[in-house]
Design brief:
By secondary structure, the protein is α+β, with helices and mostly antiparallel strands. It is built from 3 helices and 6 strands, in the order H-H-E-E-H-E-E-E-E. The longest helix has 14 residues. The termini are far apart. This is Nuclear transport factor 2 family protein.
Amino acid sequence: MSIKEFVQKFYKSDALIDSEIMKTYLHPDVKLDWNSTKGLIEMDHNSMLDMANELSRAYVRSKVRISHILAEDDLVSVRYSHFVKTIENPREEMLLAHFAIIWQIKDDKLYRGYQMSQFS
Protein backbone atom coordinates (compact mmCIF):
# COMPACT_ATOMS: atom_id res chain seq x y z
CA MET A 1 0.00 0.00 0.00
CA SER A 2 1.34 3.45 -0.89
CA ILE A 3 1.63 6.16 1.78
CA LYS A 4 -1.15 8.06 0.02
CA GLU A 5 -3.45 5.02 0.26
CA PHE A 6 -2.43 4.54 3.90
CA VAL A 7 -3.42 8.11 4.81
CA GLN A 8 -6.68 7.81 2.84
CA LYS A 9 -7.48 4.61 4.73
CA PHE A 10 -6.82 6.41 8.04
CA TYR A 11 -9.27 9.21 7.25
CA LYS A 12 -11.91 6.83 5.83
CA SER A 13 -11.82 4.75 9.02
CA ASP A 14 -13.41 5.75 12.32
CA ALA A 15 -9.96 6.50 13.80
CA LEU A 16 -10.85 10.10 14.61
CA ILE A 17 -13.54 8.90 17.04
CA ASP A 18 -12.15 5.47 17.96
CA SER A 19 -8.85 5.37 19.86
CA GLU A 20 -8.41 1.62 19.26
CA ILE A 21 -8.46 2.17 15.51
CA MET A 22 -6.29 5.27 15.83
CA LYS A 23 -3.61 3.29 17.71
CA THR A 24 -3.05 1.12 14.65
CA TYR A 25 -2.11 4.17 12.56
CA LEU A 26 0.08 6.12 15.00
CA HIS A 27 3.83 5.82 15.34
CA PRO A 28 4.79 5.51 19.05
CA ASP A 29 6.69 8.83 18.76
CA VAL A 30 3.97 10.67 16.82
CA LYS A 31 3.81 14.46 17.17
CA LEU A 32 1.12 16.75 15.79
CA ASP A 33 1.49 20.53 15.66
CA TRP A 34 -2.01 21.92 15.16
CA ASN A 35 -2.65 25.59 14.42
CA SER A 36 -6.27 26.03 15.43
CA THR A 37 -8.51 28.95 16.26
CA LYS A 38 -7.33 28.47 19.86
CA GLY A 39 -3.67 28.82 18.86
CA LEU A 40 -0.95 26.20 18.61
CA ILE A 41 -1.84 22.81 20.06
CA GLU A 42 0.99 20.29 20.36
CA MET A 43 -0.13 16.70 20.60
CA ASP A 44 1.65 13.40 21.18
CA HIS A 45 0.55 9.77 21.03
CA ASN A 46 -1.43 9.87 24.30
CA SER A 47 -3.12 13.21 23.68
CA MET A 48 -4.22 12.07 20.20
CA LEU A 49 -5.81 8.96 21.70
CA ASP A 50 -7.42 11.08 24.41
CA MET A 51 -8.87 13.38 21.73
CA ALA A 52 -10.38 10.39 19.88
CA ASN A 53 -11.95 9.19 23.15
CA GLU A 54 -13.33 12.65 23.82
CA LEU A 55 -14.83 12.91 20.33
CA SER A 56 -16.42 9.47 20.68
CA ARG A 57 -18.35 10.68 23.72
CA ALA A 58 -19.96 13.52 21.73
CA TYR A 59 -20.35 12.04 18.24
CA VAL A 60 -21.85 8.79 16.97
CA ARG A 61 -20.50 9.11 13.44
CA SER A 62 -17.54 10.80 11.83
CA LYS A 63 -17.00 11.31 8.12
CA VAL A 64 -14.07 12.92 6.34
CA ARG A 65 -14.44 14.30 2.82
CA ILE A 66 -11.04 14.67 1.20
CA SER A 67 -10.85 17.30 -1.51
CA HIS A 68 -7.08 17.18 -2.16
CA ILE A 69 -4.37 14.64 -1.40
CA LEU A 70 -0.78 14.74 -2.63
CA ALA A 71 2.16 12.49 -1.81
CA GLU A 72 5.89 12.94 -2.30
CA ASP A 73 8.69 10.91 -0.73
CA ASP A 74 7.56 10.29 2.89
CA LEU A 75 5.07 13.20 3.01
CA VAL A 76 1.31 13.25 2.37
CA SER A 77 -0.67 16.51 2.23
CA VAL A 78 -4.42 16.36 2.74
CA ARG A 79 -7.15 18.97 2.56
CA TYR A 80 -10.42 17.74 4.01
CA SER A 81 -13.67 18.61 5.74
CA HIS A 82 -14.70 16.74 8.87
CA PHE A 83 -18.40 16.03 9.36
CA VAL A 84 -19.98 14.48 12.46
CA LYS A 85 -23.33 13.30 13.75
CA THR A 86 -24.12 14.09 17.37
CA ILE A 87 -25.58 11.73 19.94
CA GLU A 88 -28.47 14.16 20.41
CA ASN A 89 -29.31 14.31 16.71
CA PRO A 90 -27.81 11.31 14.85
CA ARG A 91 -29.75 12.03 11.64
CA GLU A 92 -28.22 15.44 11.02
CA GLU A 93 -24.71 15.69 9.64
CA MET A 94 -22.82 18.73 10.91
CA LEU A 95 -19.60 20.25 9.55
CA LEU A 96 -17.06 20.31 12.36
CA ALA A 97 -14.24 22.13 10.52
CA HIS A 98 -12.02 22.31 7.44
CA PHE A 99 -8.46 21.00 7.74
CA ALA A 100 -5.17 21.04 5.88
CA ILE A 101 -2.45 18.71 7.11
CA ILE A 102 0.95 17.45 6.08
CA TRP A 103 1.82 14.00 7.46
CA GLN A 104 5.29 12.51 7.50
CA ILE A 105 5.16 8.71 7.39
CA LYS A 106 7.79 6.66 9.22
CA ASP A 107 7.81 2.87 9.68
CA ASP A 108 4.42 2.74 7.89
CA LYS A 109 2.80 4.92 10.58
CA LEU A 110 1.75 8.56 11.04
CA TYR A 111 4.88 10.17 12.50
CA ARG A 112 4.86 13.98 12.23
CA GLY A 113 1.82 16.09 11.46
CA TYR A 114 1.48 19.79 10.72
CA GLN A 115 -2.19 20.80 10.68
CA MET A 116 -4.28 23.94 10.29
CA SER A 117 -8.02 24.10 10.86
CA GLN A 118 -10.82 26.55 10.29
CA PHE A 119 -14.34 26.37 11.61
CA SER A 120 -17.01 27.21 9.09
